[in-house]
């Protein structure tokens, strides 16, 4: 029996040294020390021993149990340490590696100039308002003195959703919304996308941007319009910038004008950029037509106003010397990163 005990001890130690995970270790513990384990089965035979032998073998059995238990405890510690080491190796983090560089976005040139223009107008007390891009015929044409049979509609063909609903061709539609909702004094600009059924080329796009301006109050005259636009252009293009008004026709203003700005390339002398004109056309403007005021419930006998509409692309192209409008819409980062 003594031999059997010693054999169990050496066998247990041998097998313990070979296990590498806690599950197998638990199985070994059951195998050697469990109720149906090898040590127990030997102790069950103690009854056969003589009175002198019994305490000796009993003591040895306790000693063997204690030693196996100790070995198991030690092995648990070793396995845990091994597992930790493995885990640390697997999750190793090299803090000296270079990080992922975050790329910071930029404003599109259209937004750079639009922000500038908004700043200039806010400085003059204007509100910046938004209007719908999907619009009723009434707001885009009818209320602006362009009835269904008006020939000027031909120059602004657009995309129709129904006979009565379209993609707006001009931000002038916002004038009507503003005058319907609020009463004078009014001082707003309204930037936004407009649409026309035009083929794409260097100066045309079916989608482009306009900035509408509207001022309505008592005693507003043409000189207020000129002063406002002169200040805008000086702020945009420098203090020696000059503007010029040419008579024109728009159905929603009377009188109407096209506004040119002195060519920054030649200073008015005439060059290839301004086609020898000395001036470059930038926007349309005029005094709000009394009919338009009346359409919006504002008494033209009491109030008067001026309005203007400018194309943002044209201003941006002049500002940066861009000769093809398509560049503004292609989203080529090699182009956009230059601003
Ligand atoms: N809406 C006109 C266009 O797209 C531009 C314009 C001209 C707007 C005169 C105005 C204005 O407010 O008074 O051609």
3D architecture notes:
By secondary structure, this protein is α+β, with helices and mostly antiparallel strands. It has two domains: 2-90; 109-336, Bira Bifunctional Protein, Domain 2 (BirA Bifunctional Protein, domain 2), CATH 3.30.930.10. Helices cover 40% and strands 19% of the residues. The chain has a seven-stranded mixed sheet, with helices on both faces. The termini are far apart. The structure holds 3,4-dihydroxyphenylalanine (DAH). Residues 170, 172, 212, 250, 253, 284-286, 307-309 line the site of 3,4-dihydroxyphenylalanine (DAH).
Determine the N-to-C terminus distance.
94 Å
Q: β content, as a range?
A: 15-25%
Helix content range: 40-55%
| CATH architecture classification of the largest domain | 2-Layer Sandwich
Spell out which ligands are present: 3,4-dihydroxyphenylalanine
Query: How much is the radius of gyration in Å?
Result: 44 Å
Order of helices and strands: HHHHHEEHEHEEHEEEHEHH
Give the structural class: alpha+beta
Q: Given the structure, what is the number of helices?
A: 11
Mean of the pLDDT scores?
A: 91
C-alpha geometry: rod-shaped
CATH class identity of the largest domain: Alpha Beta
Give unreliable regions as ranges: none
CATH topology name of the largest domain:
BirA Bifunctional Protein, domain 2
The CATH superfamily of the largest domain is Bira Bifunctional Protein, Domain 2
Question: How many strands, which pairing sense, and closed or not: the largest β-sheet?
Answer: 7 strands, mixed
What spatial order of strands do you see in the largest sheet? 1-4-5-9-8-7-6
């Amino acid at each position: 029996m003594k031999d059997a005990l010693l054999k169990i001890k050496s066998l247990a130690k041998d097998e313990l040294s070979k296990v590498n995970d806690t599950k197998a270790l638990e199985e070994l513990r059951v195998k050697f020390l469990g109720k149906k384990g090898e040590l127990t089965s030997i102790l069950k035979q103690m009854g056969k021993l003589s009175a002198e032998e019994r305490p000796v073998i009993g003591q040895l059995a306790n000693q063997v149990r204690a030693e196996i238990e100790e070995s198991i405890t030690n092995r648990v510690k070793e396995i845990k340490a091994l597992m930790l080491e493995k885990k640390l190796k697997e999750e190793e983090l090299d803090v000296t590696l270079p990080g992922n560089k975050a790329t910071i976005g930029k404003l599109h040139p259209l937004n750079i100039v639009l922000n500038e223009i908004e700043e200039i107008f806010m400085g003059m007390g204007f509100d910046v308002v938004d209007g719908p891009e999907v619009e009723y015929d009434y707001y885009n044409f009818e209320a602006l003195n362009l009835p269904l049979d008006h020939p000027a509609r031909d120059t602004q063909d657009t995309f129709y959703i129904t006979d009565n609903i379209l993609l707006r061709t001009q931000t002038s539609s916002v004038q009507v919304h503003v005058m319907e909702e609020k009463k004078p004094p009014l001082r707003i600009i309204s930037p936004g996308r407009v649409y026309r059924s035009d083929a794409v080329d260097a100066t045309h796009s079916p989608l482009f941007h306009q900035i509408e301006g509207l001022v309505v109050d008592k005693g507003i005259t043409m000189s207020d319009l000129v002063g406002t636009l002169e200040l805008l252009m000086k702020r945009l293009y420098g203090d020696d910038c000059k503007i010029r008004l040419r008579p024109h026709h728009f159905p929603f203003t009377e009188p109407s004008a096209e506004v040119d700005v002195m060519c920054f390339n030649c200073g008015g002398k005439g060059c290839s950029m301004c086609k020898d004109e000395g001036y470059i056309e930038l926007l349309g403007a005029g005094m709000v037509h009394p009919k338009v005021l009346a359409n919006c419930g504002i008494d033209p006998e009491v109030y008067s106003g001026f309005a203007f509409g400018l194309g943002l692309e044209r201003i941006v192209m002049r500002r940066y010397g861009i000769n093809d409008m398509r560049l503004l819409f292609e989203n080529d980062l090699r182009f956009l990163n230059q601003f």
